[in-house]
Amino acid sequence: QVELVESGGGWVQPGGSLTLSCAASGRTFSSRPMAWFRQASGKERDIVATVSWTGGGTYYADSVKGRFTISRDNAKNSVYLQMNSLKPEDTAVYYCNTSPPTRTWGQGTQVTVSS
Questions:
Q1: Which of 18, 57, 76, 109 could form a cystine bridge with 6, CB 3.0-4.6 A?
Q2: Rounded to an integer, what distance in angstroms lies between the CA atom of residue 38 and that of residue 111?
Q3: Which residues make Cβ contacts (< 8 Å) with residue 79, sequence separation at least 6?
Q4: What is the pLDDT of residues 63-100, one digit of tens each?
Q5: Nearest to 99 by CA among 34, 4, 55
């Protein structure tokens, strides 16, 4: 079982940047692809980005391509999401999980983009 703790969210003006972090526990972290997901108020949870277990392969949703960068540090059991050029439509609760996701979700971290 993997336990996940997300952090780094907050309020930022449009055009700003944030870096999210996810600390994962569990023996299977380093052998699995990881992903960031987000859920806006009243909407379903969507995938944002994924990273292979080696870190060499990544995927981005079209809505964040060119603005977000996913990375991981297997030695620290951590995965990160660097978010630049943030837009109001990026406002959501952000979660990390394996890819595909396990049934265990963390509490997420709120990102609010507004002026």
A1: 109
A2: 9
A3: 21, 22, 24, 34, 36, 51, 70, 71, 72, 73, 96
A4: 999 999 999 999 999 999 999 999 999 999 999 999 99
A5: 34
